[in-house]
Specification:
homodimer; alpha/beta; DNA-binding
Chain lengths: 341, 341
DNA sequence: GAGGGCGGTGTAAACCCTTTCATCGCGCCC
DNA sequence: GGGCGCGATGAAAGGGTTTACACCGCCCTC
């Protein structure tokens, strides 16, 4: 009977050479613990048989997977930038990074969370602006896995965090519009109900207005969902509602593009009639016409630093509890002085 | 001495109840093989102790991980769409999908490939338009893991494939421009050196011109890298070089946006002076001003079908060797009749 | 020449789970 | 009342690797 053609294991390699599996394992993992000759023979046999170690077995034994997950609420270019940074750091640290999305769906969050709790990954980078990984936070008796929170602090646990100061970023933006001469400055907020980030940006907006003694336009309702379409709709509503603002600060770039489209659709011009400013510095804003003035949130940098901290956590090294990365105003073509010179 | 506080295992649960680990395992995995009472007790203890099964151990035993990888050459919104489709299909099939990027870096491709070969995942969806997962394809004696190729067939192995007919898509685009009255139709190709997809689109362009007895502009060199910047540069070169075309067919949407920017920068208007058409139907084109006329490649659909096929492969069921998904012209504002009416 | 150190190798346990096979008790049937 | 089937459980093997420990020559030293 023909031997069934399964994948070769370390035992097959050992048998082919008349060695023990321990020696083969050592030849591969700790080259200097075996003779040069043995190592050469092992490598040859490995090549010849097409042997690959079973990572599952290895991880099970070592109790470490060298894999980390990045968990993001949805598919968005912005989160991709964060991922990019994580990936870059991880590579230098010998980790593999894998990406999962929750779609703000509790069940899916649970599942990803369980993957880590169940040893499929060593740690987790939560790129979220919303809620806990489980509907109700777990009982404290159940230890959390190693987690670093990127972008925005979470309120359901005290975790190491790399974030931007979204409140200050928003305030800077509005201050900038003010410095251009604008006094009627509206705001299109994000999903303030679910996103602390959106709330912080709203707060920054209010704080800036207050600092300049201006009236804020608070008739905007719940805000958009950080998507282009909701930005469009919000701007449309804004144009129909009351006195037209001369400038709009929008809670992220994507909604800002939507807002510009709505303004154009209404037969107005940006920045001639209305200045528009976003936050994030996403690609879509950089290449739009007019190119979007925005506040840059260094997504890749946030990802990179998060991974570095997660590495320290996993190694039991001391780490910074909270890192706040700086934001920066990027002036492009969607804003202009008021009144127009 | 205090017992070290490691994660509870199935043994801990069993001991806490005076049951055997077999029963606990069954209570969790095959609920109807145990008494109602036993199951209730087990679930209670699991909850109380915070037990989570170790997926590594489970997979090792079962020889199946229920994880598949999506491997893409780079981070791009287009690949995200494919991923989205894969993810959706996978969810209904009980698989977890994880995403990895190669950056066209042979070493990284190897690493991801090894993850699958090493049992960390059951299969692979290769979203690639470029080369084999290893610098030189492996010896045929070394079996390939289950792979489905999405988007574009590969030439180094005979693998199940879900693809669009890029050649026909390009031909359709040029035919459409022809039907608008354009005769001087230029092409900005993708990286024809490394991407069969770029080559196919170039071929479609040539075929269309030939069918209409037109001269093709072949002075474009190696083409862009499917990025906005290279599209900009290519268009700039095109404008400086010879007689100005009345229409440009660009090998993907991102480069097409770059091309439009270059045209605008040169003081010309789209589509008034030059019509521009892309391929893919990416978001960036949909929301641009002018909105981009393009040929839609149903990325999510490709991803979905790829995953379905991979599932069949993994189950040993029969599957379609090659699926060709239809493309579709989407007319927006970046194209106009010539001469202008 | 006996003891000690040392480099290289083998043996076997451990990692945590699933699953086959055996066991056991119980009710049922003739 | 004995055999049988059946449902629930337990014992143990097995999955592929790493690694602590034991072993075995060998050379060196006194």
């Amino acid at each position: 009977m023909v031997k069934t053609n399964r994948r070769p294991t370390i035992t097959d390699v050992a048998n082919a050479l008349g060695l023990s599996i321990a020696t083969v394992s050592r030849a591969l993992a700790k080259p200097d613990m075996v003779t040069d000759e043995t190592r050469a023979r092992v490598l040859e046999a490995v090549e010849r048989l097409g042997y690959r170690p079973n990572l599952l077995a290895r991880d099970l034994r070592r109790q470490v997977s060298k894999v980390v997950f990045v968990v993001a609420p949805r598919l968005s270019p912005f989160f991709l930038d964060v991922f990019q940074g994580v990936d870059q750091a991880a590579r230098t640290m010998g980790y593999t990074v894998l990406l999962g999305f929750t779609d703000r769906n509790g069940e899916r969050e649970e599942a990803l969370y369980d993957q880590v709790l169940s040893n499929r990954a060593d740690g987790l980078i939560l790129v979220t602006s919303s809620r806990a990984p489980s509907p109700e936070p777990r009982k404290p008796s159940h230890r959390l896995p190693p987690i670093v929170v990127a972008l925005e602090a979470v309120d359901w646990a005290n975790l190491p965090t790399v974030r931007a100061d979204h409140r200050a970023a928003a305030k800077d933006a509005v201050d900038y519009l003010y410095s251009l001469g604008h006094r009627a400055i509206a705001h299109i907020p994000g999903p303030v109900g679910t996103s602390p980030m959106a709330r912080n940006r709203l707060e920054g907006y209010r704080a800036a207005l207050a600092a300049h003694g201006l009236q804020s336009s608070e008739r905007l309702g719940e805000g958009g969902q950080f998507t282009l379409e909701t930005g469009y709709a919000a701007m449309q509503a804004l144009l129909q509602e009351g006195p037209r603002p001369t400038a709009v600060f929008v809670a992220n770039d994507e909604m800002a593009i939507g807002a510009i489209q709505a303004i154009k659709a209404a037969g107005l011009r940006v920045p001639h009639d209305i200045s528009v400013m976003g936050v994030d510095d996403q690609r879509i804003g950089r290449s739009y016409d007019p190119a979007l003035t925005t506040v840059r949130v260094p997504a890749a940098d946030i990802g990179y630093r998060s991974m570095v901290i997660l590495g320290k956590v996993l190694n039991g090294e001391p780490y910074e509890e909270t890192v706040v990365v700086p934001t920066e105003i990027i002036v492009r073509q969607s804003t202009a002085p008021y009144p127009a010179p």
